[in-house]
Design goal:
Diaminopimelate Epimerase, Chain A, domain 1, 18% strand, binds guanosine-5'-monophosphate, binds manganese (II) ion, 2 domains, inorganic pyrophosphatase (n-terminal core)
Length: 342
């Protein structure tokens, strides 16, 4: 990875003295958002900084085992206004695994108005916004966790990695690469993983905690969605699924239960693009998109669902009804197809 050494120097200078640091990550946080935030937090705390990690909303129950996750402040559940006061007191704000403040949703306004702290971006999404003072933006990096690893190594050397930090970074790396199987991997990532393994992390145990720790309700919901709700378009090459709040209740839904469902249609040989529409509290529909090869769902999400993400994994939102959202998707896929893009 081609890290700009002047930026590493600026990062070290910014954090040369103990500071009050806030680390933020995106709404609907995943293993990479949490792993990279907490790993950074651990390193900075060890160096004497006062660090608070804040997330806009809850993270999935099956990631609660992650070391130090009890330190995460969840803004949506913060009735005491801790988020506001911590942000107001911050001298440095680091945004990890998100490309714009808009992805903080309920926190966006607070960051825009409550603080004059220096803003650092550490991220691997496309199209980073210009709201930051120091930017580490590497869309070619498979995860933010890998980028954090490279920054920490360049700034402080591999000796800052202990087993806790390595476990956190490893979770970020596997969750954003399908356990090192997606096309975003490269030899450097495996070398980084090797450094993490040197600390003695238990890889099979981490794998089981991340991938084999769901509820029975989730397994049954998954069966229902694939069997009853998966539809295909364009001769079976494009798939989509939907999930209403009513259906979620029928399967004792817990937040995070439908994560990963959108990937499954891509295991069908012909399918090159997949979408999942899920109703959310707050009256909108979350749109998740995945693709194979040169089908660009980042552009699709930006163009049709006011979203973004990566080339093969992106998301957005719809404020229409489920029927209208699906009709809009079908028409959009048609248009994309007519332009030769899917
Ligand atoms: P997921 O489908 O897992 O929610 O999201 C897939 C990818 O798209 C993630 O990298 C996520 O950050 C990005 N993404 C999801 N929703 C949005 C959105 O509303 N706006 C933008 N810009 N990116 C999104
Ligand atoms: Mn990520």
């Amino acid at each position: 990875m081609n890290l700009d050494l002047d930026k590493i120097k600026a990062f070290k200078e910014l954090l040369a003295e103990p500071k009050r640091v806030v680390i933020l990550s995106h709404t609907n946080p995943d293993g990479d958002a949490i792993g990279s935030s907490l790993a950074l937090s651990q390193v900075l705390q060890k160096q004497g900084h006062t660090v608070n990690c804040i997330l806009p909303n809850r993270f999935p129950y099956y990631l609660k085992w992650m070391p130090c996750s009890d330190q995460l402040i969840i803004h949506a559940q913060d009735k005491l206004g801790i988020t506001e006061s911590v942000i107001a007191a911050a001298e440095v704000v680091i945004c990890a695994d998100m490309s714009s403040l808009a992805r903080l949703e309920s926190l966006t306004e607070i960051i825009a108005t409550n603080t004059t702290a220096k803003r650092v971006l550490i991220d691997h999404h496309l199209n980073p916004s210009s709201e930051f003072d120091l930017v580490f933006s590497f869309p070619e990096s498979s995860s933010t966790a890998y980028l954090v690893y490279e920054i920490l190594k360049a700034a402080y050397g591999c000796q800052v990695l202990d087993q806790t930090i390595a476990s956190l970074l490893y979770v970020g790396m596997i969750t954003d690469t399908g356990n090192f199987a997606f096309s975003n991997i490269n030899p450097d990532l495996f070398r980084a993983a090797a450094d993490l393994l040197e600390t003695g992390i238990d890889v099979p145990e981490i794998y089981n905690k991340v991938y084999n720790s769901f509820t029975e309700g989730r397994a049954r919901l998954f069966g229902y969605v694939i069997n009853r709700k998966m539809k295909t378009l364009l001769k079976g090459t494009v798939a989509y699924m939907s999930l209403t709040e009513d259906e979620m209740r029928r399967f004792w839904f817990q937040q995070g239960d439908s994560e990963g469902f959108v990937n499954y249609p891509l295991s069908i040989k012909k399918v090159k693009m997949s979408a999942m529409f899920s109703e959310q509290q707050g009256g909108f529909i979350r749109v998740s998109l995945r693709s194979h090869g040169n089908v660009d769902v980042n552009t699709f999400a930006r163009r049709y669902f006011n979203g973004g993400g990566h080339h093969n994994a992106a998301g957005g939102k719809s404020f229409m009804t489920m029927e209208q959202t699906i009709a809009h998707y079908i028409a959009s896929v048609e248009e994309y197809h007519n332009e030769g893009l899917v």
